[in-house]
TrEMBL record:
It comes from Phytoactinopolyspora mesophila. Pfam families: Pantoate_transf (PF02548). Mg(2+) binds at residues 58, 97, 129. GO terms for molecular function: 3-methyl-2-oxobutanoate hydroxymethyltransferase activity; magnesium ion binding; methyltransferase activity. This is 3-methyl-2-oxobutanoate hydroxymethyltransferase. 3-methyl-2-oxobutanoate binds at residues 58-59, 97, 127. SUPFAM superfamilies: Phosphoenolpyruvate/pyruvate domain (SSF51621). The active site is at residue 195. The gene is panB.
């Protein structure tokens, strides 16, 4: 009996998706979705829906922990979130971000952090941000047997150095991003996220690399697309970037359900007889 049916998205995998499956999808020209997840409910829902890769992102900083950005997130805060997503999924490949300050000091620090995340959370891969300066850390982690997803373009952990949320890849910077993507692939990264990179540069990188290119705000030419799940589902109250599309109105639905519950409690309609034990 075959282990799968065709396709990462919606295919009936009898096991977890692997980095080899992602490479095969690239070779076959198959596009696939990726979402963030930080706990058991979304983990299970997205896994059951057939999303092949889930990212336990340090975007938890401004989507779970109420920070203004991702910089304050700690390793100790990330591991329990990743552990919950792993426990609640059976099919998706789960990737965990290495938070700011946990890998930039040295390649030794990066390797120690990656090992800690893998051992304590059970994820199948880690992700780290950075272009050429991150290459040696990626190589060191991969050489230790840990799959690494790279991330270039706009890197949220560097928001203060970049000077805000700015599109990347215009002018000479485009060549720099292409070179960085090549170097990260050669270092062993199994996939690369391009965030807020011009569509033209993204198309060039996607064409040149043999590993999957995952876009967020980088146009339609990638092998995969990722969004923060709260943005995707219409959960957030704040303004969202231009590249975000809400595919639902979860905030509106949850607000309506909350108000209906509160109204019935105040009026005495809830709990009714059918909700009462005798």
């Amino acid at each position: 009996m075959a282990e799968t049916t065709a396709g990462l998205y919606g295919g009936e995998y009898k096991r977890r998706i692997t980095i080899r499956d992602l490479r095969t999808a690239k070779e076959q020209g198959e596009r696939w979705p990726m979402l963030t997840s930080y706990e058991m409910f979304t983990g299970k829902i997205f896994d059951d829906a057939g999303v092949p890769v889930l990212l336990v992102g340090d975007s938890a900083g401004n989507n779970i922990y109420a920070h203004p950005d991702t910089v304050p997130v700690t390793l100790e805060e990330m591991i329990p979130l990743a552990r919950a997503v792993v426990r609640s999924t059976r099919r998706a490949l789960v990737v965990c971000d290495l938070p700011f300050g946990s890998y930039q000091v040295s390649t030794e620090q990066a390797l120690r952090t990656a090992i800690t995340v893998m051992k304590e959370s059970g994820v199948q891969a880690v992700k780290l941000e950075g272009g050429l300066p991150a290459v040696e850390s990626v190589r060191r982690i991969v050489d230790a047997g840990i799959p690494v997803m790279a991330h270039v373009g706009f890197t949220p952990q560097s928001v203060n150095a970049i000077g805000g949320y700015r599109v990347q890849g215009r002018g000479a910077q485009g060549d720099e991003l292409v070179a960085a993507a090549h170097a990260l692939e050669e270092a062993g990264a199994f996939a690369i996220v391009l965030e807020m990179v011009t569509a033209e540069v993204t198309a060039e990188i996607t064409k040149r690399l043999s590993i999957p290119v995952i876009g967020i705000g980088s146009g339609p030419h990638c092998d995969a697309q990722v969004l923060v799940w709260q943005d995707m589902a219409g959960m957030g109250a704040q303004a969202t970037p231009r590249f975000v599309k809400a595919f639902g109105d979860l905030r509106g639905n949850l607000t309506a359900a909350t108000q209906a519950f509160a109204d019935e409690v105040v009026s005495g309609q809830f709990p009714a007889e059918e909700h009462t034990y005798h």
